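Here is one chain, start to finish.
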Amino acid sequence: MSGMLPPIAILGAGSMGGAILLGLVDSGLAPDITVTTRSREKADARGELAGVTGLALEDDSEANRDAAAAADIVLVAVKPHMVADLLGEIATALRPGTVVVSVAAGITIATFAQILGEDVPVLRAMPNTPALVGKGVTGLAAGPAASAEQTATVRALFATVGQVIEVDEDQIDALSTISGSGPAYVYLLIEEFTKAAVAKGFSTEKARTMAEQTFVGATALLEASTEDPAELRRQVTSPKGTTERAVAVLQEARLDEVFARATDAALARAREIAEGR
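Its structure:
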């Protein structure tokens, strides 16, 4: 997919919808975007962006239908418990061939098809919060009614906020335990790394700088390098040195088992949510 994106509606421009919106605007590839929000204040703020029209539900109860009717791609970005009502609201407003994309966790393509009709092209997307700074990872799963061309267009949409990984729908929940929840794992490691620095006598400010910028720098080096993380780790780990001693302690803690258990727990919870529990 190359060139400009077709008219897009983003229904629910909260944190994730807003991040995608900003990525689209910054890319310059989406000259026609309509956004719906509950409040006039937020709609006005979104409407100040280039190529964006903001509609407020408090002013017009038909705002979602109006936005959906004018779009070739409809992004459903409301909270999961609101999805079914929203789909029922817009179902008869969609034009033939309009692509519907869900960023709502736990709502299956089958649920969309049941409400909208089996012939409506539907895709599920699972972005993560670094999309806010254009460094996101989005998992993308296409439903049976979505063509290769439509999937490529949606891929291009999410490429404006980072990397896109196409998966089968049955892998979306597993992907969410890695890239979706993953930023929280990284922040937790930084929290603990900072505490270790404070415990060694550094001020909180200095500890934060050391811990946070070490992670920022390490990931920047990883991104710029052709080496994999294991090789970069070996380059820092001199034989019989201080890093080797520290890494041995971390490996004794069986981080492989800890991360397997953590992501398994997240996957179990994702399946509970999908079942309405």
